[in-house]
Every structure is written in C-alpha cells, then in structure tokens.
C-alpha cells in the first residue's frame, strides 16, 4: 500500500480535497445523519502514504472535522444525545479503521521482509551447494587424473624392477605421461566455465579438456 515519493504530495492533496468535500456535505446535512462515517474514505486514502504518522494525523484531523460538523450543521428534531451518539460512532469508525489498517500494513511489511530473508537464505544455501558441488567435482577430477597417472606408473615400476631400468621407448612414454598429466592439471586450473562429465563409478567430475577446433583430447593436441 506504499506509494512512491513522487506521488506523496498527490496523496496529501487528495486527502485534503476529500476531507473538504465531506465537511461541506456534513455542513449542509441536518444533524442526526452519520455523515462523519465518510471520513473513513480519507483515512483509507492516507494509507497510500508510506508514513504511518500521516494516517494518524489524517484520523485526528477527521475527528476534529466531525466536531466542526456538529457546530455548523443545520439543526434537526432529532434528540441531542442521538446526534452525539452518531458522531461518537463516526469517530470510533474512523479510528478503528485507521488502527486496523495500519496494523494490517505492518503485518504485510513484516511478511514481505520475512519472505525476502527466506529468499536470501535460500539463495545463499543454493550458492553454497553449488560451490560444494564444484569443489567435490574438482576433487573427483584431480583424483581421476592422479589415479590414472599412478596406474600408469605401476607399469613402469614393473618394467624397472624386471629390467633394472626403462627402455628408450618406455622412457618416451613416461615423459609423455608426465607431460599429459601436467597439461591436464593446468587445464583444470585455467577453466573459464564448468562442464560436468561422468567419471568411473558414476562419479561427477569436471570436463577440463580444452576444445580446439575438432580436437577434443590431449592426444589429438600433441
């Protein structure tokens, strides 16, 4: 029910005009008719202002106008106690409307604030989950790279224990393995976007291979 700051003067003007119209109507209406109840409209319009004090001020001004209406309205044959009873009910209606409307607006603001807090907490939780997912995928990918490297090293270890050394061909393969592993780790650290890929055991890892043209593997880039 809040209004922009640019529309606040218009709200003040509308409330003033409405109050004046109701006062003029009250003045030309004989006593005994509860014309003061119409001031509820002014109170409701005042709720468009973001300031709570303005609505309270409007309700107070309308209360004063109700008493002014008693003095300026033409007399009637209705008993005076009925006139005052009608005016009292009008004032009661004005203040009940103002108080309940302000409480409702405060409740709506509180609910809106709680909803925003919930959305912010949900976003933070989502970001944490995404970061955790990326971290887990990174660890799985590193384990996959290192695991492949260690598995290949087992072959060279067996050859060394069997032949007391590596053949020139095996040495070349070992150098290529070290180079490929280094390239894989460097690519993993230089990613500009995260793309998932399935690893062994249905684990989720990171697709760290940089695609250049139609070459999508390290071997093709050698």
Explain the overall architecture.
It is a single chain. This protein is mainly alpha-helical and 222 residues long. It folds into two domains: 5-118, no CATH class; 128-221, no CATH class. It is built from six helices and two strands; from the N terminus they run H-H-H-H-H-E-E-H. Helix 1 (8-28) runs antiparallel to helix 2, helix 1 (8-28) packs parallel to helix 3 and helix 4 (80-163) packs antiparallel against helix 5. It is rod-shaped and about 130 Å long. The two termini are 67 Å apart. 14% of the residues are buried.
SSE inventory with pairings:
Layout: H1 8-28, H2 39-46, H3 52-72, H4 80-163, H5 168-189, E1 196-198, E2 204-206, H6 218-221
Antiparallel strand pairs: 1-2
Helix pairs in contact: 1-2, 1-3, 2-3, 2-4, 3-4, 4-5
Short description:
The protein is mainly alpha-helical. The protein folds into 2 domains: 5-118, no CATH class; 128-221, no CATH class. It is 72% helix and 3% strand.
Tell me which oligomeric state these chains represent. single chain
Q: Give the strand line-up of the largest sheet.
A: 1-2
Helix content: over 70%
Number of domains: 2
Report the β-strand fraction as a percent range: under 5%
Provide the succession of SSEs. HHHHHEEH
Structural class: mainly alpha
Intertermini distance = 67 Å
- Helical stretch tally: 6
Extract low-pLDDT stretches: 210-222
What is the 3D form?
rod-shaped
What's the total number of strands? 2
Q: Whole-number average pLDDT?
A: 82
The largest β sheet comes out as: 2 strands, antiparallel
- Radius of gyration, in Å, reads 40 Å
């Amino acid at each position: 029910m809040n209004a922009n700051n640019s529309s606040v003067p218009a709200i003040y003007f509308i409330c003033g005009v409405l109050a004046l119209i109701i006062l003029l109507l009250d003045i030309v209406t004989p006593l005994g008719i509860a014309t003061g109840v119409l001031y509820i409209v002014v109170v409701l319009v005042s709720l468009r202002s973001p300031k709570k004090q303005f609505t309270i001020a409007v309700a107070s001004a309308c209360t004063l106008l109700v008493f002014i209406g008693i003095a300026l309205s033409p007399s009637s044959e209705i008993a005076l106690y009925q006139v005052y009873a009608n005016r009292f009910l009008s004032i009661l209606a004005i203040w009940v409307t103002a108080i309940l409307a302000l409480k409702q607006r405060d409740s709506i603001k509180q609910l809106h604030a709680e909803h925003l807090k919930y959305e912010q907490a949900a976003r933070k939780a989502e970001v944490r989950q995404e970061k955790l997912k990326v971290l887990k995928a990174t660890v799985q990918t590193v384990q996959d790279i290192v695991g492949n490297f260690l598995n290949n090293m087992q072959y060279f270890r067996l050859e060394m224990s069997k032949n007391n050394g590596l053949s020139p061909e095996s040495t070349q393969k070992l150098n290529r393995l070290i180079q490929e592993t280094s390239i894989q780790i460097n690519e993993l650290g230089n990613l500009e976007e995260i793309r998932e890929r399935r690893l062994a055991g249905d684990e989720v890892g990171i697709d760290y291979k940089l695609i250049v043209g139609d070459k999508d593997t390290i071997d093709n880039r050698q």
